[in-house]
Design goal:
Layout: H1 4-10, H2 15-30, H3 38-52, H4 66-72, H5 80-83, H6 90-98, H7 110-113, H8 125-139, H9 155-168, H10 171-176, H11 181-193, H12 199-213
Helix pairs in contact: 1-2, 1-12, 2-9, 3-12, 11-12
């Protein structure tokens, strides 16, 4: 279903080799997410394209200038002075903004270690742990992803993490319940980020995926 030709049409900028690698990995992973219909695959690829910037970004960039930090995390960094110690310091920033939640331990490097990775930007110790259990139970892969979190940036494990998220949140059911594709895209967007953030771009990507499948 998800072929190199589909990927080349959808994201031509990533090149033939990358298109082939990600098409193969996403095709293998979709089955573990219960994605058996073209319409489901279209929405999956559309959303993952948005999340990964067209399958180009697979690791969260935590290298910010102080001014930008006050805009991205205004409650944590209300002033430039508050943000300055974390500007240009990705590890410290990751620990600052992510520790104490998502299963990340206070006083540890969990926030940095379990930063967003993969097409879906899986984030936090709890999500890495849950993905690892799913990987073992659904795929038969015993890899402890918490010990090798960088694997999420590879096509194989990145695609599987996207499948885990899709399966975990029962997104196929949400798509089936909304026969209008634009409405389905909006509902899936809400499931992914709790609101309509990026909906316009996500819908553009989804329509591109429709065209790529033909």
């Amino acid at each position: 279903m998800i072929t190199t030709d589909v990927f080349r049409k959808l994201v031509p900028a990533i090149g033939i080799e990358n298109a082939a690698r990600w098409a193969s990995a996403m095709e293998a992973a979709r089955k573990h997410a219960g994605i058996t219909k073209k319409r489901e695959a279209i929405h999956w690829l559309g959303q993952m394209c948005h999340e990964s910037g067209g399958f180009k970004t697979f690791e969260e960039n935590l290298n910010y200038k102080a001014e930008r930090l006050t805009k991205v995390w205004p409650k944590r960094f209300p002033t430039i002075a508050d943000a300055t110690p974390f500007a240009g310091n990705p590890k410290a920033l990751g620990n600052k903004v992510y520790n104490g939640r998502m299963g990340n331990r206070l006083g540890s490097d969990d926030g940095w270690y379990f930063r967003g990775r993969g097409p879906k930007q899986i984030t936090g110790r709890d999500n890495y742990t849950a993905f690892g259990k799913w990987l073992n139970n659904h795929v038969g892969d015993p890899t402890d992803i918490r010990l090798q979190p960088e694997l999420l940036t590879t096509s194989q494990y990145g695609s599987l993490s996207a499948a885990w998220f899709w399966d975990k949140n029962k997104i196929n059911a949400a798509i089936a319940a909304n026969p209008n594709d634009e409405k389905a895209c909006e509902v899936v967007t809400q499931i992914i980020n709790g609101g309509r953030i990026g909906f316009a771009e996500r819908w553009i990507w989804t329509k591109r995926a429709q065209a790529a499948f033909g």
